[in-house]
Amino acid sequence: MADTTQVGSGQTVLVVDDHATTRQTIARMLEAGGFTVEQASSGSEALEQLARKSIDMVLSDVTMPGMSGIDLSYHIREQYPSIPVAIVSGDVSDLERSIIGRAEVPFIKKPFHAESLFSAVKEAIQTHRLND
Q1: Separation in Å, CA 104 to CA 23, 39, 77, 124, 128
Q2: Based on the structure, what is the number of domains in the chain?
Q3: What is the pTM of this model?
Q4: Which strand ranges, in their side-by-side order, compose the sheet holding 107-109?
Q5: Could you state, in chain order, the average pLDDT of each consecutive group of 10 residues for the chain (132 residues)?
Q6: Residue 2 lies in a domain
């Protein structure tokens, strides 16, 4: 197994998921990879944190009460265009997959291994920076 302790190099990822256990599991995985992690339980809470904190990337569940991860990605793109967003979900309908594709937001399917999560997060951050 590769050493993943410094993969994140302190980059800050905001993990957004209404299920606390899932959110905390993803946070622990990212922290173990060297990422700094902030957490939000809803899209509106995520937007509040983005207004107050320095965030390098947002990793959001797709299906949440109130604001979906897809809607959150549109708000972030409009208000914080320098911050990349990726959608994480285990059960995405064909319609949601189509919408995610049109939103040009990376999709990470659950379940995933730590290495694939680290890779997807780093790639999203690097790709977004190249396109800025």
Answers
A1: 23, 23, 11, 11, 11
A2: 1
A3: 0.85
A4: 36-40, 12-16, 57-61, 85-89, 107-109
A5: 57 96 95 94 98 95 90 93 88 62 71 86 77 60
A6: no
